[in-house]
Amino acid sequence: MAVISGIGYDHQDIYPSKEDYTHAFIRFIEQSRHSLLWETDATRLNFDIPAKNTTTFPKNTNLSEIIVPIRTLQKIGLGSEVELIRHITSFPGLSRRFERIADNIYSDYAHTPEKIRGAIQTAHEIAKSKIAIVYEGLHNTRQHFIINELKDLFRDTDELYIVPSYLAREDKSLELLTPEKLIDVTES
Fold this sequence. Notes:
Helices cover 40% and strands 17% of the residues. It has seven helices and seven strands. Strand 6, helix 6 (140-153) and strand 7 form a beta-alpha-beta unit. Helix 6 (140-153) packs parallel to helix 7. The N and C termini lie far apart (44 Å).
């Protein structure tokens, strides 16, 4: 079963165009016995996804409220009801996604604009007051791809600190976007 939590364009060093990236998701769905994804992502793929092999959810659905119908899972041969309930209830969750470090301090591996917006929304829901963000962009190359979105991405935060990006698999021809340069972008 494929559980697709978002298809925001990423991994530009491997998929040089959005079309290449989208096509990789389509191939992944075609190879899966069943897929779960957001309705908006299914629409964005512009692909005739077989309804019998796919479950979609409205974008405003809270992830913690998504319950995959046990009968659907049984139909595609993923186990008995008892086995499926055991697997679902024992799933530990994903690491590096809004992990609590200490009281009122969380870490999140969000590195695409969609995921960053989601992490900021979660921070607001938990804090119910002011939030401060420490942003470490993942890869200089990725920062170049999302620079236009960075202008507004942190608008709903009270304090923003930017630290140097983690550098790996970089395009050496691109200018290094230092914290100072990224701060200038977010303040413009």
